[in-house]
């Protein structure tokens, strides 16, 4: 018997202003699209902006439904749109901004478990890590150089 240790390194930026200019611009797109989310039930708004290797930027936000489970998170709205419109493009960077509509939050909000699984599918498919930056509505931005850092021991196609 032996223990295994799984380590994750994340980078924390104090504000969006500390990001490189191109990344700050992508995060601003995530913030802008967050404000257009359709979230009348949770009033929790999430925005996602993706930079593809063909230069396109894809944005998405959460879309809720009166039948709650029929809604979809911002991350999956964006990556499925990217996957459907540009099936051969790779997702290079992902910016996420999330928080309650009324008061916002300075707590960096990571993608939910289901979205981590969905993002993982694209990272495996494209054989290129996705550089992920996430924040609340203000304050610190956390960077993970790969989805793998956020989903250790992930389930992927190699098991099938
Ligand atoms: N949500 C996202 O869009 N992404 C996440 O990673 C976490 C949760 C949405 C789903 C729902 O519309 C609202 O936030 C509250 O859970």
Describe it for me?
- The chain is an alpha+beta fold and 160 residues long.
- The chain contains three helices and six strands.
- Strands 1-6-5-4-2-3 form a six-stranded mixed sheet.
- A hairpin with a 4-residue loop joins strand 2 and strand 3.
- Helix 2 runs parallel beside helix 3.
- 33% of the residues are buried.
- The model has no long low-confidence stretch (mean pLDDT 98).
Brief write-up:
The protein is α+β, with helices and mostly antiparallel strands and 160 residues long. It has helices spanning 21-34, 74-85, 113-126; strands spanning 11-13, 44-52, 57-61, 91-100, 131-135, 141-144.
Low-pLDDT residue spans: none
Strand content: 15-25%
Following the backbone from N to C, one meets helices and strands in this order, namely EHEEHEHEE
The CA-CA distance between the termini, in Å, is: 27 Å
Strand order of the largest sheet: 1-6-5-4-2-3
| Beta strands, count | 6
Ligands and ions found: tetrahydrodeoxyuridine
The description of the largest β-sheet is:
6 strands, mixed
What number is the mean pLDDT? 98
Give the C-level CATH assignment. Alpha Beta
Instruction: List the domain count as a whole number.
Output: 1
Count of alpha and pi helical runs:
3
Q: Pairing-aware structural class of the strands and helices? A: alpha+beta
CATH topology: Cytidine Deaminase, domain 2
| Rg, alpha carbons | 16 Å
- The shape is globular
Shape-level CATH architecture: 3-Layer(aba) Sandwich
CATH H level: which superfamily? Cytidine Deaminase, domain 2
Helix content: 25-40%
Function: This enzyme scavenges exogenous and endogenous cytidine and 2'-deoxycytidine for UMP synthesis.
Organism: Subsaximicrobium wynnwilliamsii
Family: Belongs to the cytidine and deoxycytidylate deaminase family.
Binding site for substrate: 62-68
């Amino acid at each position: 018997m032996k223990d295994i240790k799984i380590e994750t390194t994340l980078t924390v930026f104090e504000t969006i202003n500390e990001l490189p200019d191109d990344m700050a611009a992508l995060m601003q797109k995530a913030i802008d699209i967050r404000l257009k989310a359709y979230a009348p039930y949770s009033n929790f708004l999430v925005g996602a902006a993706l930079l593809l290797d063909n230069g396109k930027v894809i944005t998405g936000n959460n879309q809720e439904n009166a039948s709650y489970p029929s809604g979809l998170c911002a991350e999956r709205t964006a990556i499925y749109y990217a996957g459907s419109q540009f099936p051969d493009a790779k997702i290079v960077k992902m910016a996420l901004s999330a928080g309650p509509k009324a008061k916002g939050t300075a707590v960096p909000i990571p993608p939910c478990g289901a979205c981590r699984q969905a993002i993982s599918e694209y990272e495996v498919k494209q054989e290129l890590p996705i550089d992920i930056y996430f924040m609340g509505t203000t304050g610190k931005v956390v960077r993970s150089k790969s989805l793998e850092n956020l989903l250790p021991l992930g389930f992927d196609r190699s098991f099938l």
